Amino acid sequence: MLLDVRNLTVSLKSDNVKVNAIDKMSLSMRDGTIHGLVGESGSGKSLFARALTATLSDKWEVKADRMFWRGQDLLKLSTEQRDQIIHKDIAMIFQEPGHCLDPTATIGEQLSEVVPASECKGSFWQRRRLRIEYIHQLLKRVGIKRYQQCFDSYPHELSEGLCQKVMIAMAISRNPKLLVADEPTDAMESTTKIQILRLLHKLNESKDMSVLLITHDLDAVTQFADDITILYSGQSVESAATKDLIRRPFHPYTEVLFNTVPRLGGNLTPKSRLQALPGSTPPLQHLPIGCRLGPRCLRAQKECVVTPKSIKLKGHVFSCHYPINIE
Amino acid sequence: MASHDIYNEVAHPGPYMLAWGKFKSDHVSWISFCIVLFFVALAILAPIITPYAPLEQHSQDVLLPPSWSSAGDVRFILGTDDLGRDVFSRLVYGCQITFGLSLLTALAAMLVGTALGALAGMSKGVRASIFNHLLDTILSIPSLLLAIVIVAVLGPGLPNTIWAIFLVLIPLFVHRTRQAIQAELKKEYVTAARLDGANNWQILFRSIFPNIVESIILQYTFAVSAAMLDIAALGFLGLGAQQGSPEWGAMLVASIDLIYRASWLTMLPGITMFLCLLSVNAVGHGLRNALKQRSE
Amino acid sequence: MFIYLVKRLNLLITTLFLLSLLSFSLGHLFPGDPVINFTGQQSLTYEEYADIRQVLALDDSYFMQYLAYLDRVFSGDFGLSFTSQSEVIRDFVRIFPASAELSFYALVVTMLVGLPLGLWAGVKRNSLIDKIIFSASAIANSIPIFWLGLLFILVFSLNLAWLPISGRLNLLYDIPYISGVLLIDIALSDFDNKWPIYQDALRHLILPTVTLATLPTTLLIGMMRTNVISVMDSQYIKAARTKGISLYQIVRRHVLRNALLPIIPQFGLLFNTLMTSTMITEIIFSWPGIGHWLLEAIYQRDYPVIQASLLLVSSFMILINVLADIIHTLVNPLVRKELNG
C-alpha cells in the first residue's frame, strides 16, 4: 500500500460551530497506480489533497484513525519529519497552472530552484551547466519541444497547457512517489486536456510514479484511472477498481453519477430528461446527519440517519445501508 | 442559534447591513467611530459646552497650567494661554473650525467631485482624454502645495484656505469616481443592463451608483483627514486662520514662542488633533476592511 | 514599448504645458502690475518699463505673451526676487541642494525602515509583531507633522538638551558654499579638524530627518504590508510551498520581488508626501531650503519667486512621477505583457 487513509475527518472551526467538511473518509492507494478521486464541486476533493500535503491553514483541524504513507503514520510524525517526507515523496499540481507560477520570474529560474542538489553533482563551475541540462531534459520529458524558448519565457507568455506541463516538470524533478493532480485539466480545451492526461498516464507507466487524479470529469477518470474513489459531501461513497465500479456499482449514488453522463449509441430517446438526483448538494452550514446523501436518495429509509459503516466486499468498499446490485 | 428553530432559517442581511455589521464587530473601528461622533457633537454643541468665549481674555489668569497641576485653577480645566484665554474653550471651538469645516468642505468637494467624476467616467474620446490629462496634472502636485499656491493668489485667511482646500479635494473625488465607474463599466452586469436597453443615465444611476457609493464614502473619510491636516498646516504656516484664532494649527504655531514656559499649550492642541485624525483614519481603515471582508 | 514611451512623454509634455500655463496666468492673477510681477524689477524708469513691456509682449494677445513667457522660461529667466533683487533662478539653484539633501536622507531612512518592517509585518501576518508594527504605523500616520516636529524639539532639544533646535550647522563653523550639500561641502572645505564639524552637522540633521521621514515611512510600511500579504495569498506562493521550498527562500525569491514591483509606481505618491512634509519641516527647524524660501516669498508677496518655485517644484515632481512609471514598465514583466497585448 502506498497510501492508506482511514476515517479522515477535516473540520472547520468557525466562531462557535464546528463543521466537518470531510467526514470519516477513507482511501487507499496501491503503488504505481492512477487513482481517481471523483466528486461534485464542494465535495471536499481538494480539501483532501491539502490535508494530505499538510498545506491547510490553521482554521482547519485534521483528524484520522490512520494516515499511512508507505507504512508510516503521517499524523504521528512531528511537523518537520512530516514535511520532509511530503516534500521528498509527494508533489502536487493544481488547476489554473498560469496562476501557480511566479509572474515575474522566467520558467528557467523557477525550475532551477526546485532541481534537487543531488541531480547536479559536480564541481562548482559544472553545476550550473548540469542544472540547465537537467531542466532541458525535464522539459523534453513532459513533451515541450521548444524547451529553450520555454526556458526563457515568463509564465504569461505561455499557454495554459504549456504552463501545466511546466508544473508537471517541476513536480517530477524530484522523482516523487506520488503526484497529486488537483483538477489539472479544469477549464482547459479538450485537446490540451487529453495531452495532459496522456502525459500523466505516460509518466505513471514509465517512471512508476503513482498519480492521485482529483477531478469531476468522469470520462477522463474512467479512461485513465485504475481505481476510483467517489466522494459525496465529504463522505467517501464507494471505492473500487474502475472496471468493477462501472460494471457493478453498489452504492446508489455511484449508479446515478455514471448515469448522468449521456452515452452515444445508448437507448436515449430524443428530448428525454437527463438522469439526476432530485435536489442539490447541501451547503456546509446545513449538512444532514447520518448519510449525507439521505435526503436526496431514492432508497433512503429510517436507518439512513445513522452514518453507514464502510463495507468491504471483494476489493470493493462502499458505505450504504441499502446497497444496490447485491443479491 | 436557538434549538427550536427547526428550519434553521438564515437571514441574509443586505450588502450595506453586512458591511455595517462587519464594521461594528471590529472594536477599534467602532470605538473610533464613537470618538468621531463625539467630536462632531463637540463641534455642534461648542457654544453650549464651553464655559468661556474663545477670544475672552482673563488678564488676571495668564498662563495657568491645566487644573490637575498644583498651580492650576479649576475654573480653567486645561489652563490658559498667554492672553488668559481658556484653553478648553479654545480647543472646543477649534474643533468647530478644524474638524467641522473639514467635514463640510470634504462634503462639498465630494458632491462636486463625484458629479464631475461621473461625467468624466461616462464620457469617451477626446474630451475624456483632455480631462484626464488635466486631472493627472493636478493630482501630481501635492495638495498642500496647491493649496498654498491658491492661498498665495487669493491672499491668506481662513475663508480663502477653505476655498483652496475645497478646490484641492475635488480632483481626488473626480479621480476616484472616474476610476470606479470605469471599472464597473467593464463588468458584465452593466453590459447586461445595456442589452436590456438601458440608456447611459439609467446605467449610471440604477446599476453603477449603488456599487460605487461605498468607495466614495471611503474616499470621504480620507478627504476629511486630508482637509484637517491641510487646514491645520496652513494655519500653522500662518497662511490660514489668523493669529489668535482658536484653529488648532494656529494655536500650535502661537505656542512655539512659549514652548519652554507653557508646554501644555503645545501638547493639548496637538493631542486633540492627533486623536481626531487617528479616529477618522481608523474609521476609514475599518470601513475599508469591512468592505474587503464582505467581498470575500 | 516604443509607443508606451511616446505616450508617457506625451503626458509629461502636456502636463508641463499645463503647468507653465498656470504659472503664466499667475503673473496676471497676482495683484499688481504684470510687468513687475513677471520681472520683479520695482524701480523702473519710464523707458525701461516700456522696453520690458515690449519684451514681455504685454500689448499683444495672451498667446504671444505666453510664447514670450515660455521663451524666458527656457532661457532660465524667471525675473528678479522682490526682496533680494537677485535672479530667482540663481536663488533657486543655491537653495535647492539644502532641500534635496534633507529629502534624500529622509528618503534613505524611509527605505531602510519602511521596507523591512512592511515585509516583516506582511510575512508574519496577524501575528503579534504584525499587530505591533501595523498599529504603530497607523498611529504615527495620524500625528500631524508640525506637531511631531514641535514635540521632538520639546523633548530632545529643550528638556533633554541633546540635539540642537534649528539650522544646519553651528554658526561657529563657516563652511564655504561649494555644492550646497553640506556634508560634501565639509569634505571639500580646508578645515583642519573636520570630525567635530561632521558631528555637529549630523546632530543638526537628526531631528529634521526623523520628522520628515515619519509620514512617508508609515505610508511605505502600509504599502509594503498590503503588497506582501496579497503576494503571500497568491496561488504561486501556495504552489511553491508544496514544492518544499523554505519560507525564507520563498520570501527571498518570490515575495520580495513581487511585492516591491508595485511600489515603484507608488513612489511618486511617496515623493509628493515627502516634498509637502519637507516644506513644513523646513519651517519648524529653520532649515534654509525651498520650502522656507517659498513661504518667505508668500509672506513677503514676492510674486516672481512664488511663480518660479511653483513651476520648478511641480515640474520636478512630475518628472519623478513619470520616471517612476517608466522604470516600473521597464522592470516589471507583467506590465510589459499588458502593453504587448
Into which percent range does the helicity of residues of chain C fall? over 70%
Mean pLDDT of chain C: 83
Return the CATH topology of the largest domain in chain C. MetI-like fold
First-last Cα distance of chain A:
30 Å
Strand content of chain C: under 5%
Shape of chain C: globular
What kind of sheet is the major sheet of chain C? none
How many separate domains make up the residues of chain C? 2
Task: Kindly report the oligomeric state of this protein.
Answer: heterotrimer
Any guess at the CATH architecture of chain A? Answer: 3-Layer(aba) Sandwich
Can you describe this structure?
The complex is a heterotrimer of chains A (327), B (296) and C (341). Chain A is an alpha/beta fold. Chain A has one domain: P-loop containing nucleotide triphosphate hydrolases (Rossmann fold, 3-Layer(aba) Sandwich). Chain A has helices at 45-52, 79-89, 107-114, 124-141, 147-151, 160-172, 190-207, 218-224, 242-247, 252-259; strands at residues 3-13, 18-29, 34-39, 60-63, 66-69, 72-73, 90-93, 178-182, 210-215, 227-232, 235-241, 311-313, 316-318. In chain A, the strands form two sheets. In chain A, strands 7-8-9-3-10-11-13-12 form an eight-stranded mixed sheet, with helices on both faces. In chain A, strands 1, 2, 4, 5 and 6 form a five-stranded antiparallel sheet that branches. Chain A is globular. In chain A, 37% of the residues are buried. Chain B is 71% helix and 0% strand. Chain B has ten helices and no strands. In chain B, helix 1 crosses helix 10, helix 5 (143-154) crosses helix 6 (158-185) and helix 6 (158-185) packs antiparallel against helix 8. Chain C has 341 residues and is an all-alpha fold. Helices cover 76% and strands 0% of the residues of chain C. The radius of gyration of chain C is 24 Å and the shape is globular. The chains are: A alpha/beta (327), B mainly alpha (296), C mainly alpha (341). The B-C interface holds B 133-134, 136-137, 140-145, 148-149, 151-153, 156, 225, 229, 232-233, 236-239, 249, 252-253, 255-256, 259-260, 263, 266, 269-270, 273-274, 277-278, 281-282, 285 and C 11, 14-15, 18-19, 26, 29-30, 138-139, 141-147, 150-151, 153-154, 158, 268, 272-273, 275-276, 279-280, 283, 294-295, 298-299, 306, 310, 313-314, 317-318, 321.
